[in-house]
């Protein structure tokens, strides 16, 4: 059994039952909707309690329930760059604004990255009379590059004082 | 003259003067810091007034000022996937959560995309005693696929009523 | 069930019945022929009414009907660049004239894109005594890049007044 | 001398003089604006008369004038898929609608292609109160696959009579 | 049913029966052997009469016969560059002599291409006491780039008179 | 000095002098025009006598003359697949007809290849009232795969007797 | 039936029977062990006599026996560059020493190639007290580039006399 | 000025002076040798104190000193996969043992990653009478995936109790 | 039977039984846990004794047991660069520190590589109050490039005496 | 200074002087001709004595002499797969016979590789009345995979006794 077979099975059941993701979020519960969806799509694991409730909801075998609790081999896009327009627009943002992210995050935080692991996300509809907007809020822990052996205590955050 | 030569020139001046991006944002003004940085990095144009102030700040020729006002050939990442860890993490988010974005945006808004053109962004430091966090807020207009010729007025947003 | 399996099923039925696309367009109706074909090929969703009529025409299950109403993961070309000569010629047009599109659209409309989402298309045979021609008419909404924070009201469309 | 050096030179002069493409089209004349732009960008040759007028307009050497009259090695996009959003949208259209083009053109015309060589194009602004639209009209000669040795005169256009 | 499945079926029957291509060409007839082979390999369609005779020869269903009459999605090489040495040598010829083709065809014919659509081909054994040779004769219609809007009637074929 | 610099120099001189390839072929002589062009484009070496005459014609240094006599690192296409339409059509022929070449050459000659090394080529204009045609004649020595150790003398050419 | 299915079948039988390649070489005989292995792996054809003995050894159908006698579509590496370390080392040799091969073979033989078609190979264990060595002996016919039309009889092998 | 130009300059000076890395490590000091080397190669920034000492050692300008203190665009391999055998072997380890790393780290630590940011490394020579060995010790902070919204406190580390 | 099918079978059994890797290591024994895991994942062979115990543990057929004892075609990552974040971080280390590895290993050992074949590895949890760390210890035999024919006995390890 | 600039300089001098590789081998001496050529082409280092003699022969600076003594970043092929026919044939051998190498070397030696580091090579002309042959002899140390922790002394070389 491969994880993508399980994903296809879950989507087939969702379609046959006519469920929304919201319905699935409420039935599984105890975790951000964002994570529950990603787990059903084979990109995150479900913690044990949620895997159990998912198994009940979808009528899974014990092995399938355990698979939902395993960290999957991540990477959900069939080919890169993504050919689907909705997903491509995010990829485009990285291409166009990636170097801007780098400059501004580094000027504010110093040398390091925004974690994609200790990371949280939320999506909301932003009503707007010119057309509603998708509002995404991302929050990732800043992880500074560690300079092991550094005996110099001067803070190293860019040229702020420059 | 190529746009990347102009970008390199601006970064050389910034480094020689010891300027921060914040200093550049304030000197140019009248536009989100996010856009001013992207324009200096050759990814956005500067409107005429800003291009003029940038030309004064950096001491540019008239042709360079005009080039700043031209829409550039966008795409700032030297190679894809990006090799720089800070930028790669955003790429990773698209790979891991791209299909989740698709499912949740479509369930909420119907078939369409979040615009990367009518798009705004903000970055803030989120103080946290386990380590500060990078908070990014993105807001893009939702653009529904137009179904020309559709004579059916039933709303088409997923299976909400299902 | 994957969307490409459904596409293959529809094409098998079309072949077995000896139907033309025109026959399918008329049977499903209420939408541009262009969109109905794209939906059958797994690139667009069919609105609910059309999905229902398609299900009747092709004898589909309820789950298959629902799948036709879902926004698909788009991208119909088996590999890129396309190896099929008919499709490749369009790709070639992008390679050869892409920068021309960029210059001329930007000079006329300013910085932005032609939408591939709010987009309509039509194909017609153009009789010509040197050999008939394929006439394609495309119409996409122009989406200007939004310069958030811009406090400058001067129109920014190229150097028209220059 | 390489063709891209000549292209860069022309764009530098255009920027320094503050010319629009329209100004260049009128000065060179006698050819569709679409083709003059493509030739300046190194994708088409200029016929001799136009190359002569271009040389006068831009102040070129005789060798540069001759280069403008040579068929260039075509292919204008720095990398593929194109990273620039305006050009990418056209590429996306090929990916999403390429198989639809194939089905509909073949049903109407039989087995063959739309020429990208005997090809004409026009762009116009389409006023629209929901936002102006870019209207592109393409017309390419249909070239049927020749079935040499075919001794059968039955027309071969799909299953129209089916 | 996919076209490659049909191709595999035809090759299986050919192998089981111990047929040569020559046998198949004679049985189907009315078309160049070159085209009949390409159609059996899923790269060309067979006209209706030939598809009918092929169906009789191979014992195909009506749907398979119709599929033989459809223009296929062309592109027969499993991966590119081709790994098979016989086919690779042709690819090598394009890499080594491609620019020579371009220079010589353009000097003789002007700006344009040799059609791969209105195209014919023949292969013959050329006896030679140093080892027999493969002789390929290709003939493709020259298609000149059309310079729409060109008001200049001077022929544009290179510098012949230079 | 790189070979491509020498190629660029030769093309610059050809353009400045307004020479045709025909003129160059006649001036260098003693070798097929096809090979002389390929050598000038950096894909073949010129034998010593021809290199000497080329050096006189173009006014080259002794080192440049020697470089013309060296076997170059072959491969003339800037990127693959070729983006130039004229050259791409040849590439397309390989993609579409490559497997046909394999089947027909093997049936006639047995297991082996058509040499791209002991290879000759000719191009001619074929007058045709529907539009002139490019006629290419290729002749390459057939090279059979050697089955070392084979103690079986039965000819191995397919199933001809089958 | 595809050739890779036949390869998989042969390897399954070899494993089930616990045979070595040496056993298979002896049972099939009459051809270099190197070629018999390559044929079983789907990269070479077996001559008729050997295909017959292979069919007896492995218990194949008549169609499978015939397939063993067909020239396969060659190219045995699942992806390139090869990920398997043993095979990669050979690939590495080409990358590191490829240009050295070119210089030394050309200085000795003139412009041409070492044939990979009229080619023989042998592997032996070379006892060595620092660790045994793999000794590979390759012998390929030198194929000189033919300079058709060359009326100059001076030998053209590099600068030997220089 | 680009970072790779600065790297080339540092390596030129190192070569001209005949310095070892050890000499450079001692002269700059206050940081792991591993990081100092990486910074000189353009992959890490040097903290301010070290950048100052490096500027003295190599005789750099103030702008070059500041550039050493900037986080570089990381990614040091000219092309991927790496063609250099020493570096390739590490790449091979990832290909062969990557999935093993994933299984064993996850079983021990749960779902997450080993940080490449909060990461330290050491290399030592391990004397061995069969040939000395390279000993690398890597230590990276384990970063668990955060399951925001998880209201379940059961530890989630694989099936340890299973 | 393909090796990946066997891997999938082993993982299915592991999941159904609820076994840990530790349990499997103990049951098979006599080899580093690191190697046993890699063998189960299809990247290493198991020696005969271990293959036998694995066959007993998992209930395998004799052919499956033999397959476990065969050297597999190595390369475990579904696509490269790896999309899974845990594995990608190792790939990132190669990209960022690969050139540093090269410089430091070569300065210490001379020209050569760290073997990925005579290679050992260990993983341990390193308790740390800022968060536990993954500690990896790698040890690979240094393999010096052999300079055959070198009659010079001067040690060649960089410029240490410089 | 980059290594490829030094390579270009050496080849320019070789061409200007009209030297053969044989001349260079004799002048530098004390090392296999194969290695001297590879070092001049930037793929191997020259030991100190040879670097000194090369510096005298070519008239190099001290820094250039030192660069010749540094292990280069290896990988000599401009792009992969190689486009030059002579080099490509070796690449083709890896593609066609790579899996055969794997099977036969492993059956003879067990699980491991042929070293590309402790590796020697020789080329000779093999007179043959059907055309001379290139004879390459390669000899690489066999490196067995080390199975650390293996407590089983049974030899593991395939199924020889099977």
Search tags:
homodecamer; 162 residues; alpha+beta; 434 Repressor (Amino-terminal Domain); Cyanate Lyase, Chain: A, domain 2; two-stranded antiparallel sheet; lyase (chains A, B, C, D, E, F, G, H, I, J)
Provide a descriptive summary of the structure in words:
The structure is a homodecamer of 162-residue chains. The first copy, chain A, has 162 residues and is α+β, with helices and mostly antiparallel strands. Chain A contains six helices and two strands, in the order ααααααββ. Chain A folds into two domains: 3-68, lambda repressor-like DNA-binding domains (434 Repressor (Amino-terminal Domain), Orthogonal Bundle); 85-144, Cyanate lyase, C-terminal domain (Cyanate Lyase, Chain: A, domain 2, 2-Layer Sandwich). The first copy, chain A, has helices spanning 3-17, 21-28, 33-40, 48-58, 62-68, 85-109; strands at 112-126, 133-144. At the H-I interface, helix 3, helix 6, strand 1 and strand 2 of H face helix 3, helix 6, strand 1 and strand 2 of I. Strand 2 of chain G pairs antiparallel with strand 2 of chain J, so a sheet runs across the interface. Chains A, B, C, D, E, F, G, H, I, J: It is an enzyme of class 4 (lyase). Chains A, B, C, D, E, F, G, H, I, J: Belongs to the cyanase family.
């Amino acid at each position: 059994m491969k994880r993508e077979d399980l994903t296809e099975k879950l989507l087939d059941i969702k379609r046959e039952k006519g469920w929304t993701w919201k319905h699935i979020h409420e039935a599984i519960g105890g975790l951000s909707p964002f994570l529950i969806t990603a787990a059903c799509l084979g990109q995150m694991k479900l913690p044990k309690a949620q895997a159990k409730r998912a198994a009940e909801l979808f009528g899974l075998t014990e092995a399938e329930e355990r698979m939902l609790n395993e960290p999957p081999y991540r990477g959900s896009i069939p080919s890169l760059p993504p050919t689907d327009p909705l997903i491509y627009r995010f990829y485009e943002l990285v291409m166009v604004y990636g170097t801007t992210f780098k400059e501004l995050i580094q000027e504010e935080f110093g040398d390091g990255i925004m974690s994609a692991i200790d990371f949280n996300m939320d999506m909301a509809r932003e009503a707007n009379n010119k057309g509603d907007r998708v509002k995404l809020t991302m929050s990732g822990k800043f992880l500074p590059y560690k300079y092991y052996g550094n005996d110099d205590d001067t803070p190293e955050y860019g040229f702020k004082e420059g």
